[in-house]
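Could someone model nicotinamide-adenine-dinucleotide with this protein?
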Amino acid sequence: MSSQSHNTVLVTGGAGFIGSHVADALLADGNRVVVIDDLSSGERRRVPDGSDFHQLDIVDRAELDVLVDEVMPSAVFHLAAQSSVTVSVTDPARDCAVNVGGTLNVLQAATRHRAPVVFTSTGGALYGNEAPIPTPEDRLPAPLAPYGASKWAGEAYVKTWSAASGIPHAVCRLGNVYGPRQSPHGEAGVVSIFTHHLFSGLSPKVFGHGKPTRDYIHVSDVVAALRAASGTAGTFNVATGVETDVMAVWSILAEASGSSVEPELAPLRKGELQRSCMDPARALRELGWSAQVPLERGLRETHDALVAEFAASQASPV
Ligand SMILES: NC(=O)c1ccc[n+]([C@@H]2O[C@H](COP(=O)([O-])OP(=O)(O)OC[C@H]3O[C@@H](n4cnc5c(N)ncnc54)[C@H](O)[C@@H]3O)[C@@H](O)[C@H]2O)c1
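Reply:
Sure, complex below.
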């Protein structure tokens, strides 16, 4: 393998929220970064300068194979996904095609170059309502929506390919990720949605009357975990182990904004969990990774970064 290909890293979904931060970090460390994204939910402007961008659908195996064989990556971060629970319900076939078939395509292409893959799965949509809190990785998944089922199936392929090829592919089950660049227009991403409402002076709906809990994790901690997992076979919760209710998140953001907007309390939406929090002990033990950003600081910094983004896009709408 040439020295150039040794430092070439492929990031699928690199025009998305988390993938763009992964690409940033890899570039900062001097890697050559190749980004693949079909821009279905991602944005071209999120792809960092200096990376090599290819608009491509991972479901298209022939096109993906040509590119990967040309690029010859030494590592792959696979974040491209149909990431909406709602879309997975309305179009489960597309959800399956991208999250299962697309993942299989990425695995096969990476395996040809003996490049370890890190696959981003979900914790929140996988463990279900009956799981102990905090939930360890060996809890049998019980997804409530097709999105959780397709991520679980993707995980199975990652593990099977790793066992069969001896290449240490990893599965990272992420908590509720927040941070700069998260879109306020999705169904999830409560930090960005709340910040956008506060910025606009609008009252958001707070489902479950503010009581549902989640394991909120800053995107910089997720990036560090994914990088630590690269080259280690296994399944890892990437979470804080801290349970926070949604009203506490609202309160910190509202205080950061100085706004007096009041939220509208609403019942829990169908299919949403009451509680979600994951045990991150395995990642600490096996990867030496633990979350570093305390929630209050992370929320305040994210609030300020998002407000700057919203103001900039208002000044120059795209
Ligand atoms: N944000 C979270 O809290 C969270 C939690 C658990 C797991 N995840 C997982 O982390 C990964 C990144 O999530 P995100 O929040 O950045 O979502 P995102 O939607 O911002 O990013 C996903 C990216 O994949 C791209 N994509 C979708 N289908 C594609 C296809 N067929 N071919 C190529 N590119 C395609 C999208 O355009 C987008 O840029 C996803 O795999 C998601 O399932 C996210």
